[in-house]
Amino acid sequence: MALTYAIPDLHGRLDLLEGALDLITRHSSGQKFKIVTLGDYVDRGPESRQVIERLMGLKSSTLDLLCLKGNHEAMMWTTSRNLAELSWWLENGGDKTLASYGAVDDLKVIPSAHLNWIADLPLMYVDHQRVFVHAAVDPRIPLSKQNEQTLLWRRYPRGFAGGHGRRHVVHGHHADQKAPLVTQGKTNLDGMAWITGRLVIGVFVDDQSGGAVEFLEVFGPPAALAKSD
Question: What is the CATH number of the domain that holds 28?
Fold first, then answer.
């Protein structure tokens, strides 16, 4: 039974990422598995640089890792390439990211390898049963025609319960402390882990349709008590 584990918005919480990797490894009982991280590795929390470095360096004979792009990585990259005002990013948590690199407003401290990694992150992962994405997909148009604004920024309207055709959609981005929020067509995993200290991981059976068969939880200190630089 092949499993895929989905990890939502980490926002600089290296402690929760490490806890998730440990818990998933134990849960998989030595079998091969896939992890899909749903984006938003940076901003708000204290260890954005460290989260990126951990994901970039993660190698395992049993683990297949796929990291998706979130809107916060898009903001970081766009600002670092001088395509947006620095204040826009800083006001949305980028100040914490720069602090993790040891700077206040100097974008030159961000290694080009990190920016290249962000640039290459895919926007979506699709298997036979599900669509994994940071924010949302438009159910009215083919997956191949989805635009970046939707995939990175859109929030589903209140009460919308659908997926995309026969596929279940797994996403983060729409922060809600009540996560996981599950409907027939989609699952929102973003429980505001960076501030609550509670990270929800969805466990999906690759050849079984629908939502998660199980949810795992990792706990760390809430934001006021979390480790800071």
Answer: 3.60.21.10
